[in-house]
Automatic annotation (TrEMBL):
SMART domains: HTH_GNTR. It holds the Pfam family GntR. This is HTH gntR-type domain-containing protein. Signal peptide: none annotated. Keywords: DNA-binding, Transcription, Transcription regulation. The keyword ATP-binding does not apply. InterPro entries: Tscrpt_reg_HTH_GntR, WH-like_DNA-bd_sf, WH_DNA-bd_sf.
C-alpha cells in the first residue's frame, strides 16, 4: 500500500488519497480494516499525528469508521462517496477550466467533443 510521498500536497492529504485510491481500486473493501496511524507513521516515517489527521479526514467524510479498541474500517458505501466526490472535484478542477480555455480559443462544443473522442481508447 505504500505510495511515494511528495511535496505537491500536504502529507495527511496524501495519506487520505492513498486510502481512497485503495478503496476505488478494490484493494480495500467495505468493512475491511485500514492501517492504524502508527502503522502509517512507521511505513512513511512520519509523525503519527499527521497520519491521524488523514484518517480523521476520511472519518469526517464517512469513508472510514472507528471500532473502539479495534481500529479503523472502510464504511459501507465508501466507494460510491469517494467516486462522487472525485467526480465533483474533476469537474471543478478540470472541466470548468477546459471549457473556459476552449471559449477563449473559440473552440466550439462540437470541436471540443471531437478532440475528446479522438483521445478515447488511448489513441493519443
Amino acid at each position: 500500500m505504500k505510495m511515494p510521498l511528495d511535496d505537491s500536497k500536504l502529507i495527511y492529504m496524501q495519506i487520505a488519497d492513498s486510502i481512497e485510491d485503495e478503496v476505488i481500486s478494490g484493494a480495500l473493501n467495505e468493512g475491511e480494516q485500514v492501517y492504524s496511524t502508527n502503522q502509517f507513521a512507521k511505513l512513511y516515517g512520519i509523525n503519527p499525528a499527521t497520519a491521524a489527521k488523514g484518517i480523521n479526514l476520511l472519518v469526517e467524510e464517512g469513508i472510514l469508521f472507528k471500532k473502539r479498541g479495534i481500529g479503523m474500517f472502510v464504511a459501507e458505501g465508501a466507494k460510491d462517496r469517494i467516486v462522487d466526490k472525485r467526480k465533483r472535484i474533476f469537474v471543478e478542477e478540470y472541466i470548468t477550466k477546459l471549457i473556459h480555455e476552449a471559449r477563449k480559443l473559440n473552440i466550439t462544443k462540437e470541436e471540443l467533443l471531437d478532440i475528446i473522442r479522438s483521445y478515447e481508447g488511448g489513441d493519443k
